[in-house]
Design goal:
The protein has three domains: 5-123, Serine Threonine Protein Phosphatase 5, Tetratricopeptide repeat (Alpha Horseshoe); 141-275, Ankyrin repeat-containing domain (Serine Threonine Protein Phosphatase 5, Tetratricopeptide repeat); 277-441. The chain has a two-stranded antiparallel sheet. Helices cover 62% and strands 1% of the residues. α2 (30-36) runs parallel beside α5 (64-71), α5 (64-71) packs parallel to α7 (98-104) and α11 (151-160) crosses α26 (486-493). By secondary structure, the protein is an all-alpha fold. The protein starts with a helix and ends in a 7-residue tail after the last helix.
């Protein structure tokens, strides 16, 4: 077949019934062959002559539309669906839907085809669309997306179908996407709850099989993959407390005091499940405080002694330092005083850490603040002590040996740099976790718009494969199950102009 429509048109004008003729033993019609060969103009003209019932004719179990989907020919698929949108619901050989073939092609054409087919599906009534989205099976796509933290996709879905916020993944647990977001600590998905207004109250009323509400879930220990996002037990516990406080903002006072089947309130769950993390955090803070306080004490002792044994000595008549008017002596005196003051302050901060009661609330702000102040004060004390040390050398070697003093000054920078490099990351992390954590829940995510990049296409493909792998039963997929992953496809491609 060459795609010569003029010749074919002359034949069909004379023999109209030939449009239905099976042209080989497999049962292929002219429409099947033209579609498989991607003769777009031929198919377009042929569709005008084929009765509606003939469009669904199958050859070897596949309709002509199935071939269009397999080849990724968007134009031909559009022509067919415009005439009969039910073609998208007809399974091909092996009970495979055309949409699945199109989506798994991974090419721009296949993704555009899926988008077009989805636009036809959304014209169905709400009940059928809802069924396609969640169905009755246990593994539902929107909840797989929620567990994997696909916030952009879910934001797009909710903006188009607000009823999704009511859906639960299990009749016993009754987890909405927000419950899953809390349980798996997906910030971007949880922030969508601020966009649904008063519906939050109804969602908060859902309980799982153990009568846990959303705040109970926030009190449970996060998965290891989420805990390890921040280093150290103390900061991990701080992040867990931040989650607990954030969820408290969206639940009622009554739900804060509710008990689950074991008789535990959300706070009880928080204390029980984070007991080990609290102990690890306490041990780390105590060990850090002990080590740093020892260093701060040594510095305080040294600079206190140096204050009374000034370089050059004191005058015998009045006890005033002999080198009082020299610039380097003044630098020595000021640096020594600063070092003494800040080393003493550092000792007090670390002492406060050691004597703290270490309640779980203290890990949120009190203990990190003491640690930050102690380390900052200790750094200032070390720096000032080294400045005083260098100033002493400039005083002693003031006559012709300034080069020696300059060399000592260069070497004296090393302890300061070592302390800074070794502790700056810790201090920055603690400051960010303590005082900048409000940014974590500040901005809500928007529904995804714009071009579908290759990275997002691969991400989508992986999610579809995970879903299909969980849904496959004896090598077959039911019609209802097959279409549920289209929700994510639509969310991903809403407004795309093609794969980049």
């Amino acid at each position: 077949m060459s795609g010569d429509w003029e010749t074919a048109e002359g034949i069909l004008d004379k023999y109209p019934e030939e449009v239905k003729t099976r042209m080989n033993k497999e049962g292929h019609t002219a429409l099947h062959i033209a579609t498989a060969a991607s003769y777009t103009h031929f198919v377009e003209q042929l569709m005008k002559r084929i009765p509606d019932e003939e469009i669904t004719t199958a050859a070897r179990g596949n309709t002509a539309f199935f071939y269009a989907a397999a080849s990724g020919n968007v134009k031909i698929a559009q022509i067919m669906l415009e005439k009969n949108k039910d073609l998208a619901m007809i399974e091909g050989r092996g009970n495979v839907l055309p949409i699945r073939i199109a989506a798994l092609l991974g090419r721009k054409e296949g993704l555009e085809l899926v988008k077009f087919i989805w636009e036809k599906i959304v014209l169905l009534d709400d009940q059928r669309i809802s069924g396609l989205m969640v169905g009755k099976c246990r593994q539902k796509l929107i909840f797989i997306a929620a567990r994997r933290g696909k916030a952009e996709f879910l934001a797009t879905l909710i903006s188009s179908y607000p009823d999704l916020v009511w859906k639960v993944d299990d009749e016993n647990n009754k987890y909405t996407i927000f419950h899953i977001a809390v349980k798996h600590r997906h910030v971007e998905i949880f922030k969508l709850i601020y966009e649904i207004g008063s519906m939050t109250d109804v969602i908060n009323a859902y309980r799982d099989g153990n009568e846990n509400n959303m705040l109970h879930l926030a009190g449970m220990l996060a998965p290891a993959s989420q805990l390890n996002v921040v280093p150290g037990a103390a900061l991990q516990l701080q992040r867990e407390l931040l989650w607990f406080e954030e969820v408290k903002k969206v639940v009622s006072v009554r739900e804060m005091e509710e008990t689950n089947r074991k008789g535990d309130t959300p706070r009880d769950v928080l204390l029980k499940q984070h007991k080990g993390l609290m102990q690890q955090g306490e041990n780390w803070l105590r060990n850090t405080a002990n080590s740093c306080m020892l260093v701060a004490t040594l510095i305080a002792t040294v600079v206190f002694t140096a204050a009374f044994t000034v370089p050059g000595g004191n005058g015998q008549d009045n006890g005033i330092p002999i080198l009082l008017n020299r610039i380097w002596f003044k630098i020595f005196a000021i640096s020594d005083a600063i070092s003494l003051i800040f080393s003493a302050s550092s000792v007090l901060c670390f002492l406060s850490l050691l004597t703290s009661r270490y309640s779980i609330e203290d890990f949120r702000c009190s203990l990190p603040t003491k640690l930050i102040l102690g380390l900052v004060f200790l750094f200032i004390a070390i720096s000032a002590m080294m400045v005083a040390f260098v100033a002493t050398y400039f005083i002693i070697f003031k006559h012709g040996l300034n080069r020696f003093a300059l060399a000592i000054a260069g070497i004296a920078v090393i302890p300061i740099l070592l302390f800074f490099v070794q502790h700056v990351c810790l201090v920055v992390q603690v400051i960010g976790s303590t005082y900048m954590s409000f940014l974590l829940f500040s901005n809500t995510i928007e529904a995804y718009k714009g071009p579908l990049t290759r990275a997002k296409a691969r991400e989508l493909h992986g999610l579809i494969q995970e879903y299909i792998g969980k849904e496959y039963e004896d090598g077959k997929l039911s019609l209802l199950k097959e279409f549920k992953w289209l929700i994510l496809v639509q969310a991903c491609m809403d407004g795309i102009g093609g794969v980049q």
